[in-house]
Write a structure and sequence with these properties.
Strand order of the largest sheet: 4-14-15-16-17
Mean pLDDT: 95
Length: 461
């Protein structure tokens, strides 16, 4: 049995004082007791203890191209022109390069306050689009990277079959992504015991309505839930206005409305982005129990638009955050950008706070942890008995935090520091992965990522 004493800790019910946290050998919290005395021999946290934040949307390989698309290549750049560049980069990957980039990224995530990641994995085959001798080769590279870094993982192999609504054939740049539905279900069967062996969760990601025809969507989700009735399902949806227009032209419905009418959307689902919904879609999607997967830094980077959070909040919707393309790898910064986007849209301040929790950073952290845990399909829902001991400790001596009460320390961490600079330690399943703001493999992981990126750029035309 291991233990930690926190003078201040953020529990699912809010801030508590003098909290004793105990966890067993599996890394599961067995006791979270406020108003406790510090037992002799139990270490005291160096500052307020927060629940670890799940990163609910990641394309790991895209960390290798961060910063490389910030130039105007045509008269008007958009998501679609960015996607063309991304395809070129994806087509240069091999298993070793993917593993090096993912390991470097996952170490960065831990140092940035994320304790788990949902990996939306769609590069499946070799550079010519042929399956590897081991059809799970690239998924195994991600499993190894997560295990080596020590980050929690929900692996979401992506079903991708078409290039547009109406079953348009895939393009040249998509050849590495394509799988038949039965082939995907066999891959899931292969990966299930391997994920379980390292405490990872396995789900499925139908890429989008434009990439998965209706029959394949129905068969894949039914097949997944026949294997595991509680497995998470993530899907990109309504990210771009062009996607909405194309869906209406194809079906007569907006994307989220079509999905709700034709798929068993419930609390197992994560609707990634869901940026462009109408009032009825906000209401119905929230009522389904699905999580909205918001990726503020990527949505800003790609010019997607702003999610209408007040409409989602009014409907009682759950949400979490992800770093998606990894132009930014910083848990607190995603929260800051989400709140700032809402301030710009509504011309109000502290939009994401509420009567029950007026401290906006506290309210956002609790909601993002709960929604991220739901989307992850893992018991990582905060500092409570039965949940995994995923803990992030703030550095109470950091100049931006020192001398403040705990709720204001969290506010300063999100809104008034360099964000990662105010982090002290990070535990995943009770194991210290980051100490004094650094992962033990920090330098090796960074060197590997840089070397992989250098090789990919060298191989580029």
């Amino acid at each position: 049995m291991s233990a930690l004493f926190a003078v201040d800790a953020l529990l699912p019910t809010g801030w508590a004082r003098n909290v004793l946290l105990r966890w067993d050998a599996s890394g599961t919290l067995v006791e979270v007791r406020p108003d406790a005395m510090r037992p002799e021999g139990v270490a005291q946290a160096e500052g307020p203890v927060l629940p670890g934040l799940p990163n609910l949307h990641s394309h790991a390989f895209q960390r290798g191209m961060a910063g490389l698309t910030e130039y105007r290549g045509q008269s008007e750049d958009s998501f679609w022109s960015w996607r063309t560049l991304m395809y070129r980069f994806a087509n240069k990957l091999d298993p070793a390069l993917l593993e090096a980039i993912a390991f470097g990224l996952y170490v960065e995530m831990l140092e940035a306050g994320y304790t788990g990641v949902c990996e939306f994995h769609y590069v499946h085959h070799d550079r010519d689009g042929r399956p590897y001798a081991d059809d799970a080769e690239l998924a195994l590279a991600l499993l190894r990277a997560a295990k080596q870094a020590g980050i929690g993982l929900t692996l979401l192999p992506v079903l991708y079959q078409t290039s547009g609504f109406g079953a348009k054939p895939p393009g040249e740049g998509q050849r590495r992504f394509i799988r038949a539905t039965d082939n995907m279900l066999r891959l899931l069967e292969r990966l299930r015991p391997l994920c379980a062996a390292q405490g990872a969760r396995l789900g499925l990601a139908p890429h989008s309505l434009r990439a998965v025809p209706p029959d394949a969507l129905r068969e894949a989700v039914a097949g997944l839930h026949a294997q595991d009735a509680t497995a998470p399902v993530h899907i990109h949806i309504a990210e771009q206005t062009q996607e909405v227009a194309d869906c209406i032209a194809w079906s007569g419905q907006r994307p989220v409305a079509w999905l709700l009418d034709h798929a068993p959307v419930d609390a197992r689902w994560c609707l990634v982005h869901a940026t462009h919904m109408d009032a009825d879609e906000y209401r119905r999607a929230a009522a389904s129990g699905a999580v909205a997967g918001l990726c503020p830094s990527t949505e800003a980077n790609l010019g997607d638009g702003l999610f209408d959070w007040p409409a989602w909040q009014a409907a009682g919707g759950a949400w979490g955050v992800g770093s998606d393309s990894h132009a930014c790898v910083n848990a607190a910064e995603e929260l800051m950008l989400l709140e700032y986007g809402q301030r710009l849209a509504t011309r109000r301040r502290n939009v994401m706070a509420g009567a029950a929790q007026p401290q906006v950073a506290t309210a956002m952290t609790l909601a993002a942890v709960a929604g991220g845990a739901q989307a992850s399909g893992r018991p990582v829902g905060g500092l409570a008995a039965g949940q995994q001991a995923d803990l992030v400790t703030l550095d109470a001596q950091h100049p931006a935090l020192a001398g403040l009460p705990a709720p204001e320390m969290l506010s300063a961490h999100v809104f008034a520091s360099h964000r990662t600079s105010a982090l002290g330690s990070v535990h995943v399943a009770g194991q210290a992965r980051v100490r004094a703001a650094r992962h033990a493999a920090h330098h090796d992981a960074a060197r590997g990522l840089v070397a992989a990126r250098t090789q990919l750029l060298k191989d580029s035309p």
